[in-house]
Amino acid sequence: MQRGSVLEGVVDDTRRLGPSLVSPSSACSAAGDTLSYIPALAGADLGGRVTGSTFVLEQPRCIFDKYDSADIWLVVATEAVLPFTTIPIPHFPANTSAYLTLGAMQYHYRCPEPNGELTVLRVGSETSCANNTSVPNCNGPLPGPGPYWWVVRNNFFSEMSVIQWHARQTPSSPGTGGGRSGAMIAITAILSVLLAILLAALLAALCR
Amino acid sequence: MPLCRSPWRELTSSLHEDLKMAKTDNGIRICQGLLILGNVVIGMCGIALTAECIFFVSDPHGLYPLLEATENDDIYAAAWIGIFVGFALLALSILGIVGVMKSNKTLLLVYIILMLITYAFEMASCITAATHRDFLTPNLFLKQMLERYLKSDTDNNNDKLMTEGVTKTWDNLMLQNQCCGVHGPSDWQDYTSAFRVTHNDADYPWPHNCCVMGSQGEPINLDGCKLGVPGFYNSNGCYDAISGPLNRQAWGVAWFGFAILCWTFCVLLGTMFYWSRIAY
Q: Signal peptide position in this chain (chain B) (predicted)?
C-alpha cells in the first residue's frame, strides 16, 4: 500500500541520516531570524500519537523551502530555555536539559506535500541505540512521562516557536465493580416462593 | 327398618352411585391424562436442558481459562448441575408416568420426593448462573488481562498455568475477532500491566496481535501498527466478543431452568392433589 511505503521511507531515512550531520549550536549564525512555525503533534486519528515514551509530530513540510541545504534538527528539552550544548540521549535528562535528534536535510521536507500519504516523525522509536552513548543523535525512547518542549530548527534560525507536550498521565490500575441485576433477584424470589408452596402442599397432603 | 326400604329407592340410589362413579372416573381419567402430558413435557425439557448444558460446558468459544483465572467460574458449575438435573428430570418423568397410570400411591410418593430434591438442585443452578453473571463486568476482564497477559515472573505452577491460559485465550481472541484489549488498544497505555514490564513502550505500545495480520500471520505494516494508523491496527475492544457468549450461557441456563421449574411446579401440585385423592 502506498501509505505503508511512505511511512517506511520516513523512518528509514531518519535512521540512515543519524550521526553525520552538523550540530546547529556550532553553525548558528547571528542573523537572528525567527519563524512563526509551531511544530504540531500529528493528527488525532493516529491511535499511537502519544504513548508512554514516544510521540508523533507532523513533518515540517514547506517551511524551509527558501533555505537550501540547511540541516534541520529536532531538539527535545525538559524546559522552555534551550542550553548551549546538547548531548546524547542516554545522559538525558540527568546531565542536560535537551538533546538533538531526527536530523535531516532540507530536501527531505520539500513542498508540495504528497496527497493522502502520511508524513510524520515518530520521536522515541529507536530502541536499539537507546543505551549506546557512542551513537550521538539516537532517537531513543523518552525516559519519563514528561512534560517536554520541542523545537524544530535549522542553522539559520536562532529561535523558533516552541510548544509544550503534555505527557500521558501515569498509568494506574482499574477497579472492579458489579451489582445485582433485577433478573437475578426476580429468579431467586419467585423460585423460593414456589418451593415453599410445594413443601407446604406436600405437608398438607401427608398429614391429611 | 331395612324392610321399609322400597325397591324404587334402592334403584335410584344405586343409579345415583353409578352416575357418581362415572363422573369420578371421568375426572380421574382427565387428571391422569393431564399428569401424563405434564410428565412428557418435563421429560422432553430434561433432555433439552442436558443438551444445552453439555453445549455450554464444551466451551466452543474457548473462554473458560479467563473465568478460571478470575476464580469466578461458577456459571460453568451451574451448567454442570444442569446436565445431571436434565437426566434426573427425564428418569423421574418416566417414573411419574408409570405411577400415574398404575395409580400406585407408593410410586407417586417416591416420585414427589425425588422431584422435590431435583427441584432444589435446579433452583441452585439457576440462582448461581444468574448471580455469577452479574460479576462479569468489563473491569474484571481488564484487570485479569493487565495482570496476567504475558506475565513473565510466575510464583508457582498454578499461577503459571493460569497465566498461560489467559495469554493463549487473549491471543486467540485478538486474532479471531480482530480486536485489541477490553475497551481498545488504549487499555495498554492507560494502565500498568505485566506486559509492560517485559515489552518496552516504544516497540510495543500494544501487543503485536493487535495489528492487522497478513496471510502469513505477520503484521502487514508494523510501523503503521505502532503509530496507530487506522487500517493497520485493530482499534475496537474485545469485550463484546467475551461478554456475548458468556451472557448467552448464563441466561440460557438461568431462564430455561426457571421455565422448567415453573412447569414442574404445576405438575407437582397436580400430582400431590391426585395422590391425595386415590385410595390404596
A: none
CA atoms within 13 A on the CB side of B248: 13
Q: Are residues A133 and A86 in the same domain?
A: yes
**Subunit contact B227:A56, Cβ cutoff 8 A:** yes
Please indicate, yes or no, whether residues A70 and A127 belong to a single structural domain of this protein.
yes
Nearest CB neighbour to B134, from listed A11, A175, A184:
A184
Q: pLDDT band for A103, please (50, 70, 90 cuts).
A: confident
Chain B closest CA to A120's CA: distance in Å? Answer: 9
pLDDT by residue (tens digit) across A77-91? 777 666 555 555 566
To the nearest whole Å, the CA of B189 is away from the closest chain A CA by 6
Q: What is the pTM of this model?
A: 0.77
Q: Which of B137, B191, B229, B269 to mutate to test the interface with A (most CBs of A within 10 A)?
A: B229
Number of structural domains in chain A: 2
- ipTM value for the complex: 0.81
Taking only the tens place, the pLDDT of each residue in B235-254 is 999 999 999 999 999 999 99
Please indicate, yes or no, if residue A106 is contained in any of the structural domains. Answer: yes
Q: Do B190 and A46 touch (CB under 8 A)?
A: no
**What three-state secondary structure class fits A42?**
coil
Identify whether A1 is part of a domain: no
In a domain, A146, yes or no: yes
DSSP sequence for B26-50? HHHHHHHHHHHHHHHHHHHHHHHHH
pLDDT at residue A36, as a whole number: 59
Average pLDDT over every residue of B249-261: 93
Residue A206: domain span: 178-208
Query: What whole-number distance in Å separates Cα of residue B13 and Cα of residue B31?
Result: 27
Candidates B193, B201, B206, B221: best to mutate against A (most CBs of A within 10 A) is B201
If we measure between CA atoms, which residue out of A159, A160, A154, A153 comes closest to residue A70? A154
